[in-house]
Write a structure and sequence with these properties.
The complex is a heterotrimer of chains A (100), B (501) and C (497). Chain A is mainly alpha-helical and 100 residues long. Chain A has three helices and two strands. Chain A has a two-stranded antiparallel ribbon with strand order 1-2. Chain C is α+β, with helices and mostly antiparallel strands. Classes of the chains: A mainly alpha (100), B alpha/beta (501), C alpha+beta (497).
């Protein structure tokens, strides 16, 4: 199990979280300490053990292909909490690059 | 009729019988909650208008001949559950101004059953915490000692019921967030089986662990609330299609023939002397009630914390990605979208949330997934298997609900020390099991002089809520510990209740 | 400096392109993938949204059963395996038109695995491309960029987001690198598109962006066993731009290699206006998507029963029909393609062939000949006219048994087109049955020979081409009913004696 110190700046970039130098200084040791605690898991034998993503035994929960107008929002409701709108749209500052 | 002290069943009976009205209950609660909560701070927001409106609706329905299981019962709602037209904040600056345009399924079921919402309660930000101290929007105190924490993350929901500003409340439990504050605030806190109660409208922390459940001053009232909110919801794919056995009318008075498992790995020697005495007394009491105590083992229990602190942060790192300043919530000014995300999330999230987002992002990131996230999922399988094996030998597992009674504010500044508070609750959460905390003998904390509430945790196999509530009920009826702890806020309670009588 | 346009055919011959294609196809459903909002194109911005597709706090996804069935149908049409176990995963990355900042997709357990897409090119060549997988995912919203020329991202000062599309079900078809040219790439995509339309799983409306694709392109010396370094080309919005972008990228890579350089692994965007690709992102800047199973959803198990149920409702694929039309019926590539692409016409045609007991060539002759002409002249779709496949089959039977001759057949067909009805009834009513009675035709032949002594002399003098004239006279005399073959035979007999 890797025990390298976490590259917090890299992880924060992935999480889209700006961190102050102070936060980096505090979080660094805290996360390392927690990960050391977590490293104990390496001792647990999990060979041939399936992974559990969900504890409930349900399978194939699906819905019929039908409209549910009662759950839909009006445009006013959709935009009501928006920090910035322009006409019928949500507005965001400029996008620097395509993603995806 | 005392709408502040009476049980949910008693209030509903009076309102259904039209001996009193929901409107009268609301008018008694509104000034009372405002006054009594001034010192406790259980609520982020009181909702008197909504309470009056719902009361009118309940009275109309009763006048039309309906009988409602929670008619006129004052309830408090953890502020990570959406209620249409109400500010819903998750205790975070990032959602401080968010007004939900829809209502969560569990809340809707509670309100449809006649409950009256007193307000939205405080919580550790995004339900991440074990003391209640991580809220960005308010400070909640333990109603049994205002210098101590109420427990978390469902801090306000436990403190509201413990402090008599609501009869029932809803909380959410991911790794102990209902059971631990219930133990600290002298109330019953019940986390049903994962998937029993719809999560639709519950602001997600860790989707595969989050579960809504009730707080009440008695097991019977918790069962009453459970009967109302449980059941399949077509809007939540993880809610389970399985008939709910109503519990409130099927509770038991003794424990004859019940095999109670005591977990070897949860040895009481880890606790301080007073706490240990409380649990020793509890186990003895169970035996007196006819239970057979059996030793069981959960060999993987000690891996619970490590497993939990990979899975929950991993899920939260993804669940909280939607808080980006685009569609709702806080937005920080920035010249471009990328910086807007980073600054918004920096300004909007508190330290604990940031820590968990970082851990989770790391655990899922390229090169670490197998060693951390996948390993934790496998460990989770083993923990669930251990429980299944233990339940071959017993009907219910009992243990402490928390590692200590309520502690003082700022007593645990190191995150890992705080995480250890959930040592007893986390394994059952990972296995998805129904679990509750019921008050047991109060204990004097190491750093105090007055006895504080304590909670006994009981856990049973998946989907056996009725049996679990029955065992807890038998224990509660025989002990009535909840009634033995002095409540400092009592003078407010009695004042208000006299005023309304 | 060598420009892309000046790369000569010798250089193009020296290298071979290796192309793999990923394309996103919008599924045809009533509602979105994970919520009950309508899956419809267009509409007022932000009016087809709910807490789920806007990713409001607390909202949860529930998968659309129809979309899952469509996936199984699509996979089976290409012979894919439908694994028993499948699941949904989260693909984590931030973008303003992606509400949750993760996309629900499928990572390591897609709904369909493998399969082969067989296609044909305009020149009649055929090819095939293996499918790696088809997986199910959800679409994002749509951003419009403001403050820049032509609404382009570059130079914009802000963007406006509409979430109506967010959550629309998409299938992503990932191919193996089996494609060798831009033409093959287009043929592959066209076949995917026509197959999905045929199956009813998608309308594949290019203009509405319901098929979008990326191509992985590399080059290698022709015959070389190993692959070159690939570039991923994005932002191709039509078959035409796929062809142009791939051609341009192949030329660019040849230029790089011939110039002594190395192709680097990167993402390149196709610029339609400039007619070239440009670098967007290098491999080093690649994303870490942190895929993990979506904990809001439970596993998907596809039972053998479900697969069989879908399999029994599968129509023949367009490729199968194309091959039948060309190989069995002798239809040319262009007409066969038209027929395949005209769903109603080809369904009508197939019914007629089956009603005509497999006498496909005769059906083809009518359908592509007179019937198409009649349909054209009256601007009516052939399948919407009064001629039923069954009545055409009857007409085919009448001609092939020589009950009527081709001239009469034409007349019957026109009557059928104008009035409908049964071919047999028309023949009887109008007395169009062919006269194949030897004695009756002999009488007419004798009359014609007697009336045309000049022609008879010419024939005997060696001008055998007057036979056509004489046959025409027999037909005329019989008012078109005489069996022309018999008439000719008898004429020859009499003239030769």
């Amino acid at each position: 199990m890797p025990t390298d110190r976490i590259d917090i700046r890299h992880v924060a970039r992935l999480a889209r979280l700006a961190l102050s130098d102070e936060e980096i200084a505090t979080f660094g040791p805290q996360l390392s300490s927690l990960m050391t605690h977590v490293d104990a898991l390496a001792r647990l034998d999990t060979a041939n053990v399936p992974a559990t993503a969900q504890v409930v035994p349900s399978r194939n929960v699906q819905r019929e292909d039908a409209l549910r107008p009662e759950t839909m929002l009006t445009r006013e409701q959709a935009l009501a909490n928006a920090p910035q709108t322009q006409g019928p749209y949500f507005r965001v500052p400029r996008i620097l690059a395509e993603e995806g | 009729m005392d709408p502040i002290r009476d049980s949910a069943r008693a209030i509903a009976r009076e309102v259904n019988a039209r001996r009193t009205s929901a409107a009268e209950v609301a008018e008694a609660l509104i000034p009372h909650a405002a006054a009594a909560d001034a010192r406790v701070g259980a609520y982020l927001q009181l909702t008197p208008e909504l309470m009056r409106e719902r009361a009118r609706r309940v009275d109309e329905r009763i006048a039309a001949g309906e009988t409602l299981p929670l008619a006129g019962v004052p309830v408090a709602l953890k502020d990570n559950m959406c209620v249409e037209g109400t500010r819903t904040t998750a205790g975070s600056k990032i959602l401080e101004s968010f007004v939900a345009p829809y209502t969560s399924t569990a809340v809707r079921r509670l309100l449809d059953a006649g409950a009256l919402p007193v307000g939205k309660t405080n919580l550790d930000e995004f339900a991440m915490g074990s003391s209640g101290e991580n809220s960005a929007l308010g400070l909640t105190r333990n109603p049994y000692d205002l210098d101590r924490v109420p427990g978390g993350s469902s801090a306000g929901s436990a403190a509201a019921v413990g402090g008599f500003t609501a009869t029932l409340s809803l909380g959410s439990d991911t790794g102990g967030s209902i059971r631990e504050p219930a133990a600290f605030c002298n109330v019953v806190g019940f986390k049903p089986t994962y998937g029993r109660v719809s999560r639709y409208g519950l602001i997600a922390f860790a989707s595969s662990l989050d579960q809504i459940g009730p707080f009440a001053r008695t097991v019977e009232e918790a069962a009453l609330a459970y009967d109302v909110i449980a059941g399949k919801d077509p809007l939540d794919a993880t809610s389970v299609e399985r008939e709910v056995e109503p519990a409130a009318d099927h509770l038991r008075e003794d424990l004859r023939g019940v095999r109670v498992g005591i977990v070897a790995e949860f040895g009481l020697d880890k606790l301080d002397a007073a706490s240990r005495a409380s649990y020793e007394a509890a186990y003895a009491e169970l035996e007196r009630l006819g239970a057979e105590l059996v030793d069981v083992s959960l060999p993987t229990a000690d891996y619970g914390l490590a497993t939990y602190y990979l899975i929950a942060p991993a899920e939260c790192s993804s669940n909280l990605a939607r808080f980006d300043g685009v569609r709702y919530g806080l937005r920080a000014d920035a010249p471009d979208v990328g910086e807007m995300y980073e600054r918004t999330r920096e300004a909007g999230f508190g330290a604990e949330v940031k820590r968990r987002i970082l851990i989770g992002t790391y655990a899922l990131s390229s090169g670490y997934y197998d060693a951390y996230y996948l390993k934790a999922q496998k460990a989770r399988t083993r923990i669930a298997e251990d429980f299944a094996r233990a339940f071959e030998r017993c009907d219910v597992i009992v243990s402490p609900a928390a590692s200590s009674p309520a502690f003082r504010f700022n007593a645990k500044s190191d995150p890992v020390t705080m995480y250890l508070m959930d040592y007893y609750t986390i394994p059952g959460s990972l296995a998805g099991l129904p679990s509750l905390s019921v008050p047991c003998a109060p204990a004097v904390p190491e750093d105090g002089t007055r006895p504080m509430p304590m909670g006994l945790q009981m856990t049973t196999p998946l989907f056996t809520e009725r049996a679990l509530l029955g065992y807890a009920h038998a224990y509660e009826r025989a002990t009535r510990y909840a009634e033995t702890v002095p409540l400092p806020a009592a003078e407010i309670v009695s004042h208000a209740s006299t005023g309304s009588a | 400096m060598m420009t892309a346009e000046r790369i000569d055919s010798a250089l193009l011959e020296k290298y071979e392109a290796v192309i793999g294609i990923e394309c996103h196809v919008e599924l045809k459903t009533v509602s979105k993938m994970f919520c009950g909002c309508p899956n419809e194109f267009g509409g007022e911005p932000n009016t087809k949204v709910c807490p789920v597709c806007l990713a409001l706090p607390g909202a949860l996804p529930v998968p659309n059963a129809k979309a899952i069935e469509h996936m199984i149908r699509a996979g089976l049409a290409f012979g894919a395996t439908i694994p028993e176990h499948s699941k949904f995963d989260r693909k984590n990355y931030f973008y303003p038109d992606m509400p949750k900042n993760y996309q629900i997709s499928q990572y390591d357990m897609p709904l369909t695995v493998g399969g082969v897409v067989r296609y044909w090119l305009e020149d009649g060549r055929r090819g095939e491309c293996r499918l790696t997988r088809i997986h199910l995912e959800e679409d994002t919203g749509k951003s419009t960029h403001a403050g820049s020329a032509d609404g382009r991202l570059a130079g914009s000062t802000s963007s406006l987001v509409d979430f109506n599309r967010a959550g629309v079900p998409l299938m992503e078809c990932v191919s193996e690198p089996d494609i060798r040219s831009a033409d093959e790439a287009v043929a592959y995509l066209e076949t995917l598109a026509r197959t999905f339309r045929e199956l009813g799983v998608s309308d594949v409306k290019m203009e509405e962006g319901s098929l979008r694709c990326d191509a992985n392109v590399s080059i290698r010396l022709r015959g070389a066993p190993e692959y070159g370094t690939k570039a991923e080309i994005k932002n191709m919005n039509s078959f035409r731009s796929v062809r142009r972008a791939i051609e341009s990228e192949i030329r660019r890579q040849i230029q790089v290699v011939e110039g002594g350089g190395r192709v680097i692994q990167e993402t390149r965007g196709w610029d339609e206006a400039a007619g070239e690709t440009h670098s967007q992102r290098s491999k080093e800047q690649a994303h870490d998507y942190r895929y993990f199973p979506d904990p809001d959803l439970v596993p998907l198990d596809v039972t053998a029963d479900m697969v069989e149920r879908v399999r029994t409702t599968l129509p023949p694929t367009p490729y199968e029909r194309y091959v039948r039309y060309v190989d069995e019926y002798g239809i040319d590539v262009k007409r066969a393609t038209q027929l395949v692409d005209d769903h109603e016409l080809s369904a009508w045609f197939d019914r007629a062939v089956s009603a005509a007991s497999g006498n496909a060539k005769a059906v083809v002759a009518f359908v592509l000949g007179d019937l198409s002409r009649l349909a054209n002249e009256s601007a009516t779709h052939l399948a919407h006219g009064k001629v039923t496949p069954e009545s055409l089959a009857e007409l085919v039977a009448l001609t092939s048994s020589n009950a009527i001759n081709s001239k009469a057949a034409k007349q019957v067909l026109e009557t059928l087109w104008n009035d409908g009805g049964s071919a047999k009834t028309i023949v009887e009513r109008e007395g169009l049955a062919q006269v194949s009675d030897r004695g009756a035709v002999e009488t007419i032949v004798a009359e014609v020979l007697a009336a045309n002594p000049d022609a008879v002399s010419s024939y005997k003098a060696g001008k055998t081409n007057v036979l056509g004239f004489l046959t025409g006279q027999v037909m005329k005399q019989s008012r078109g009913k005489a069996n022309p073959a018999l008439a000719q035979e008898l004429l020859k007999e009499k003239l030769g004696s």
